[in-house]
Amino acid sequence: MERKCGECTACCKTHGVFEIQKMAGVWCPKSVLSKGCSVYADRPGECRDFACAWLMGFIDEQYRPDKTKIVPEYRIVTGIGTILWLWEVRKGAIRSKFVNAWTLRNLLAGNCIMQVPLAEPPVLFLPERLADLQLAFDLGERRVAVLPFSTSRKFLC
Ligand code: SF4
Ligand code: SF4
User: Model confidence over 16-25: pLDDT tens digits?
Assistant: First the structure.
């Protein structure tokens, strides 16, 4: 069955919208909590095009982002492969047990995971197959911490 966002508006906080100069990590002024977008019919193209991994059906029904306070998103990056992005909606959610479980499961499957907390530095977890990859980059104004598989377990526990 096709999923719908319903009462969820989580990505209206986590994601930046260039067209209306909305920063990532703050609620969009056009968002009405638990109702949706007040300019839905005329919303920016970026909003129109976005679908989180839950909406696309990759994540179990019970993990809708407004309930978990985490927006999951898959992106494919050349040279790296699939990255699962986990965007924090409410402070602390990124440290929850299920986020750790998703992170570990994807690492073991050979996928990268990018955890994006609201305030702390983002962390990119690299699976074993990418252990030798040297990466240094920023997300907005924040430097991304890159953790190879060997140290990920300690971080997650
Ligand atoms: S986070 Fe996903 S389910 Fe929630 S509003 Fe955005 S696209 Fe829809
Ligand atoms: S314009 Fe609408 S859909 Fe886009 S972020 Fe703002 S509230 Fe969400």
Answer: 999 999 999 9
Does the C-beta of 36 come closer than 6 Å to ligand 2?
no
Ligand nearest to the CA of 47: 2
Domain count, the chain: 1
Identify the three-state secondary structure at position 87: strand
| 11 Cβ inside 6 Å of ligand 2 | no
11 belongs to a structural domain:
no
For residue 47, tell me if it sits in a domain: no
Residue 72 and residue 80 in contact, taking contact as beta carbons nearer than 8 Å = no
In this structure, the residue with its CA closest to atom 8 of ligand 1 is: 5
Best probe residue, ligand 1, of 5, 28, 60 (max atoms within 8 Å of C-beta): 5
Rounded-to-integer distance, Cα 153 and Cα 155, Å: 5
Print the domain residue range for 93.
Answer: 52-156
Residue 101: inside a domain, yes or no? yes
Distance CA 142, CA 31 (A): 25
Low-confidence ranges of the chain (pLDDT < 70): 153, 157
1 domain-assigned: no
